[in-house]
């Protein structure tokens, strides 16, 4: 039941659509005809446009010019920058002015500027169809005009002007590179000569000292003859003398203290020895003291032999004191001699330290001047090598980019627009669509009764019958 009702409703809608079309057929035909005639007139009256193209290919050369040599890791962005740069060159005033002067001779400067501005808008430079500058290494120069000969001449002249300007720019870059390195080499040569003169003058002024320095640097086996080794030896000797002087001072102090006592001077170990007078006096004094000690227990002090022994003891002690005094005087003289030697060594140490400081200063200055000269020499050699590369690049006139005219301009034989058949077909279908749209829109806003079924729909009363329309 439901399917039958649905099919019935669909049939009613289809009949209503057909009715609307036939009811407004005159309106549909008028609108469709007018639209078709309008587009047909456009297809006939619109002027023909002829498109002329020239295709260029860009490739990178193996650059030997050091000033133009770049290291790229992203070739995609590199080509995009290069192609964008070529587009800027083509649309530059320099290229378009040459083309305008070739095509339109005899005009004023203001007229040429207007032509260049118009050409900058009309000329198109882009990658092949369906590609972008990021994915292509080619680009197309295109221009359209109602005159096929003018379109061809324009593309041809712009292409020739572009190639000429590109070569001029490339040549200027290589010439600039050569001039740049030429100036740099000349400047570095003057700098190198100045540093060489400074080094030579310094070597002449300090020839003897530099000979010793260079000999020591070249033969390490003779390093012990250097001032540093001599300074170490002198300092070691001074330390030994200083220790000996301190020992002598202690000995002199002890002897002076013992000389002031009643018991006689003390006999130090280094004062004794076989055959020495002090040793003989010491033994004599010791024997006399032993004899006096034995007799003191047996006899009175007035005993003549005991008294003579005491007198002899005092005489020997005096002799021992005199001999010790001579020994003490010798040690004082020795101490003074050591003091004098230490003073001489201090003077020698000061001289050696001054010599070391002077040598270090000399070595440092010489090393600085020599290193400065070597750096200048290396910089001059590197700049000379780059100058030679720039000279070769200049002689070869080898740019970093190679632009090739792959497809030169060809005079077009057929227009590329307008598409007359397409315009006529578009006008036909658009007219039908507009006519149908107008018919359905008019019917939607028209509530008048046109069919017997409209009575049941709008009046909600049953239809009993109908009379045909009579022309009488």
TrEMBL record:
Tell me the domain of life: Bacteria
Signal peptide limits? none
Which organism is this protein's natural source? Desulfolutivibrio sulfodismutans
Q: Which UniProt keywords apply?
A: Coiled coil, Membrane, Transmembrane, Transmembrane helix
| Any coiled-coil regions, as ranges | 231-258
| Entry keyword annotation includes Transmembrane helix | yes
Record protein name field? Lipopolysaccharide biosynthesis protein
Traced from the root, the source organism's taxonomic lineage reads:
Bacteria, Pseudomonadati, Thermodesulfobacteriota, Desulfovibrionia, Desulfovibrionales
Residues spanning the membrane: 27-46, 421-442
């Amino acid at each position: 039941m439901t399917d039958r009702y649905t099919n019935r409703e669909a049939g009613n809608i289809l009949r209503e659509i057909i009715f609307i079309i036939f009811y407004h057929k005159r309106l549909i035909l008028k609108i469709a005809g007018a639209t078709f005639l309008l587009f047909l007139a456009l297809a006939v009256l619109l002027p023909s446009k002829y498109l002329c193209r020239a295709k260029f290919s860009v490739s990178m050369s193996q650059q030997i010019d050091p000033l133009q040599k770049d290291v790229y890791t992203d070739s995609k962005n590199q080509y995009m920058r290069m192609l964008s740069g070529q587009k800027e060159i083509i649309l530059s005033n320099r290229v378009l002015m040459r083309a305008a002067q070739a095509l339109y001779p005899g005009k004023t400067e203001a007229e040429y500027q207007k032509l260049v501005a118009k050409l900058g808008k009309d000329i198109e430079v882009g990658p092949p169809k369906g590609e972008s500058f990021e994915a292509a290494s080619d680009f197309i120069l295109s221009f359209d005009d109602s005159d096929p000969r003018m379109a061809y001449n324009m593309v041809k002249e712009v292409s020739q002007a572009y190639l000429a300007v590109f070569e001029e720019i490339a040549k200027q870059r290589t010439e600039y590179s050569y001039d740049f390195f030429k100036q740099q080499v000349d400047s570095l040569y003057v700098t190198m000569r100045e540093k060489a003169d400074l080094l030579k003058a310094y070597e002449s002024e300090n020839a003897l000292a530099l000979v010793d320095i260079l000999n020591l640097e070249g033969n390490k086996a003779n390093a012990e003859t250097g001032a540093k080794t001599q300074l170490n030896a002198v300092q070691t000797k001074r330390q030994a003398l200083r220790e000996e002087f301190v020992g002598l001072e202690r000995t002199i102090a002890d002897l002076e203290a013992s000389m002031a006592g009643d018991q006689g001077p003390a006999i130090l170990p280094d004062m004794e020895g076989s055959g020495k007078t002090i040793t003989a006096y010491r033994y004599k004094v010791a024997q006399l003291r032993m004899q006096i000690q034995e007799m003191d227990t047996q006899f009175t002090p007035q005993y003549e032999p005991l008294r003579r022994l005491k007198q002899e003891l005092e005489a020997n002690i005096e002799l021992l004191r005199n001999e010790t005094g001579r020994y003490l005087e010798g040690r004082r003289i020795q101490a003074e001699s050591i003091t004098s030697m230490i003073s001489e060594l201090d003077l020698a140490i000061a001289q050696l330290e001054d010599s070391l400081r002077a040598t270090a200063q000399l070595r440092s200055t010489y090393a600085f001047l020599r290193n400065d000269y070597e750096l200048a020499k290396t910089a001059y050699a590197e700049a000379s090598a780059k100058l030679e590369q720039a000279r070769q690049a200049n002689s070869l006139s080898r740019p970093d980019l190679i632009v090739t005219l792959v497809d030169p301009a060809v005079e077009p034989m057929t227009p590329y627009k307008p598409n007359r058949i397409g315009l006529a077909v578009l006008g036909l279908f658009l007219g039908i669509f507009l006519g149908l749209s107008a018919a359905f829109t008019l019917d939607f806003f028209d509530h008048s009764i046109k069919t017997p079924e409209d009575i049941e729909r709008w009046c909600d009363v049953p239809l009993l019958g109908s009379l045909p329309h009579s022309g009488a």
